[in-house]
User: Fold this.
Amino acid sequence: MPPIDNFKIEGALPPIPTAAHYIYVEDKTGWDALGLYAWGDSELLGAWPGESWVEEVTVGGSQAIGQRKAAGITLKKFLFDTESGNYNLIFNNWNNGKQTPDYPVNGTQDYYLTVTETTVTPIDPDLLAGIDALTEDGASIAFDGAQVSASGSITVIDLAGRVVRVGNDCVAISDLPVGAYVVTAPGHKALKVIK
Assistant:
């Protein structure tokens, strides 16, 4: 029988799933694997050890961070598909004996966290300086330095999860303390660093 040499096998990766919110993690654990479990109003991410991150995103680039220049910060992106509820996050090394202490969150926003073997903390806003948008639709939320504009209801949340501004169509932000803030509008969200 003659060999067959005129066929081709092709494949495609499945699309990255979407969620109402996300948890972005700067992973400083040194672990081989990173899982996320959430307990509270429900087991939001399934039974222990939870779920793995779905993709890595690089933010920033060429901004000064302290005494060094950053080429960008890679964040692991976890799905956080809820609009309400209170949860405790536990990062673990995929059920291999290591885990972080509980980190309380609510289900109404994205979170940007630095995770080590023993701590979970909000990301240092200096690490996010210069990115001004980690967006799902950057054209829908506009920043002009003194205010944020979008169509409809706007909510501004600090990285600790506190709502710091609410309004319709336009919200003043010039008097907010230096830091990073999550801005949401109907169907859109962005990360804004205010210096």
Q: What stands out?
A: The mean pLDDT is 80. The chain is about 0% helix and 45% strand. Residues 138-194 form one domain.
